[in-house]
Amino acid sequence: MPAMNDELPGHGHTVLIIAAHADDAALFCGGTLRLMADRGVRVVMLRVTDDRYDSVGMSVAETIAANTAQMHRAAKILGIDEIIELGWETDRLGDASEVALRERFIYHVRRVKPYAVMSFDPYGAFHEDNQDHIKVAHAVDETYWTAQFDKHHPEHLAEGLAPHGVFERWYFARRLVEVTTPIDISSTLDRKVEAALAHETMLRHYVNQLRLQARTGGHDIELLERAWDGDLRALMEPLLRGGARATGRRHGLAAAEEFRVVRFGGLEQFFGIETKGNKGVRAP
User: What share of the chain is helix, strand, coil (3-state, %, to 5)?
Assistant: First the structure.
């Protein structure tokens, strides 16, 4: 399967990424977001939760502040133009109303009017252990059609918004059930790595989780201990680069990110639309 970089959105397009957590953008699709930004795309990120628990040895207030500041540093590296904060409590979306969450997504889709939306694939849930990711995936998936109904949340219309149809849906996951679009990120891998490493508080928490698991298994892993003491790059950079290269090898590329992309609700061929470059053009 060839890389589909020529079909990335470009100048004049807006892409909305809906992420459960501060580091989702960098980790799942950072290289692709940077490619889009370099092509002139306006990138908007909606962060659902406040990541208040994703730290070690810090208060909730300190954690929220640190993770938010580090997210803004990562967003600058990735070329993200705007960040929307919903501020829902992290690691608790499993108890949240999916309909209430969907209403917020509908509102911002109607406000931002994106050409494309990127978010979690609801069909990747088999490989997903984070209910925040799963709940966001399902709420976003319903947003695509409900944002187009004039009787879903007419209070939005009273504010001057209007129904909006998203042309492209870019799904990512820990492991996609179907890959339609591998993106060659060899030119933006360095910036993906730097954006991911900007999330120091969350990464250090991740390292501590690995340390706890290793200790339970009777292991004392020097690389984890060094990362815990401060050398995060030595651990995380090889993991990030290795993951991108392994994904690339599946498609004959140096480094890649994978997506399931649906355009025009999957009906483009039925209506004689071909997608070439940035534009949908009517076939002769």
Answer: 50, 20, 35
Q: Where are the alpha helices (DSSP H) in 164-268?
A: 189-197, 200-216, 222-229, 232-249
Q: Please give the pLDDT value at position 272.
A: 76
Residue by residue, DSSP assigns 239-258 as HHHHHHHHHHHTTT-SSEEE
Tell me the pTM.
0.92
| Alpha carbon distance 188, 256 (integer Å) | 10
Q: How far apart are CA 188 and CA 193, in angstroms?
A: 9
The per-residue pLDDT for range 126-183, each reduced to its tens digit, is: 788 899 999 999 999 999 999 999 999 999 999 999 999 999 999 999 999 999 999 9
Run of H or E including 71: helix 60-78
Q: Cα 46 vs. chain centroid, distance in angstroms?
A: 9
